[in-house]
Amino acid sequence: MWHLVCGDNAVAGVAHCIGAETAKQSLRVMRDDLAVGPLADIDTPPCQMRSDFWQQLWPASVQSQPDFGPELSSDALWLKDLAQQTQAVTVWDGDSASEQLLLARVAAALESSSVELWRVACGTGDSRVVSRKAVAMHAPDTLAALHQPRLLSAAQRQQLAAQWHAAVAENAAIRRWRDGAFHGVSHKHIRQHLLHFCTDQWQPLNRVMASVMVECDGFFATDFFLWWCARELVASGQLVFSAPLDTAYAEQTVKCS
């Protein structure tokens, strides 16, 4: 059986649950943050639009820059081949929009297949900051208690696949997960939050970013994503950095222009 997790931070806990040898053979890490960026060509290698988004977002000061195209293409091709295999698939998911999108994406990949799709639900069902739990947020022992795989029915798989197809068709800049559904919003949603926490006085950029994270219901806004949004606001003249754009965000201060 394949075990799929969203991001490297979930690996240790899941490996603890299924055993190191099983993890070595059948645990696959899907590293793409599906909550942000275009999805229109994500299932069509070379996934150029999505690759270009990550290349643009990646900060110049962080070396070396990953070559996103091959990994995105590898994921797309692996999922396309999944329906032809005989191994069942288990997706470990929490309240992260990316994890929920991964579950929906796998359901879509198996739409015409008899391959079994299992789910290990590790979230609270509530994507608000105060209550949400991603797989990686659980201690290994806690995760072990949640390790109760459930076979998804044909109707559940159909519903999830439909959600994935709708998200791809909408191609929103950001996808928030709320009440079991995905809601697309523009980058303005996050940029307004960044502007809200900035003033005409200099303050550390990482403090502003942390303030946005604390209020970011519906998806996990990463530091790199927020840093890129802040750079875009600087480029549009709405924010000012105290140092060059390629300065690490932990060393950067910011204010409204």
Number of domains: 2
Percent range of helical residues: 40-55%
Count of DSSP H/I helices: 10
Average pLDDT taken over every residue: 95
Give the SSE string: EHHEHHEHEHEHEEHEHHEE
| Beta-strand residue percentage | 15-25%
Number of strands: 10
> Uncertain regions: pLDDT < 50 for 5+ in a row?
none
Q: How are the strands of the largest sheet arranged?
A: 2-1-3-4-5
- Strand count, sense and closure of the main sheet? 5 strands, mixed
Structure description:
By secondary structure, the chain is α/β, with parallel strands linked by helices. It folds into two domains: 2-178, no CATH class; 187-256, Arc Repressor Mutant, subunit A (Orthogonal Bundle). Helix content is 43%, strand content 16%. The protein has ten helices and ten strands. The strands form three sheets. It has a five-stranded mixed β-sheet, sandwiched between helices. Strand 3, helix 5 and strand 4 (117-121) form a beta-alpha-beta unit. Helix 1 (11-18) packs across helix 2 and helix 1 (11-18) packs across helix 6. The radius of gyration is 19 Å and the shape is globular.
